[in-house]
Design brief:
97 residues, 4-stranded antiparallel beta sheet, 4 strands, 20% helix
């Protein structure tokens, strides 16, 4: 539809694997639209979830970021919908266009 918002989404993550990981488990997501760029960063509690569990959290955050970028509400429950652990926080930032 011609009036639909155009957005771009990028995601990079380093999450659980079957090999030993020395660094943090984390992800960064960026959403660009006509109004600017919003970023979402999340450091996951290491060894708290398996690969599938971490993929699910990162995927939910990416879907939330995309929804907000399209002008929708995202998750009504906010971070609770991500099933974050007590030590985990989503960090957001934005740069206007």
């Amino acid at each position: 539809h011609a009036d639909a918002p155009a957005v771009g989404v990028a995601c990079t993550a380093t999450i659980a694997t079957d090999r030993l990981k020395r660094g943090e488990h984390r992800c960064w997501i960026g959403v660009a639209s006509i109004t600017g760029v919003t970023t979402y960063g999340l450091r996951l509690e290491k060894n708290a979830r398996d690969r599938g569990g971490e993929e699910a959290v990162v995927s939910r955050l990416a879907l939330h970021a995309l929804a907000v970028g399209c002008g929708l509400d995202g998750f009504a429950q906010g971070p609770a919908a991500l099933a974050l652990r007590a030590s985990e926080r989503v960090e957001t930032g934005s740069v206007p266009a």
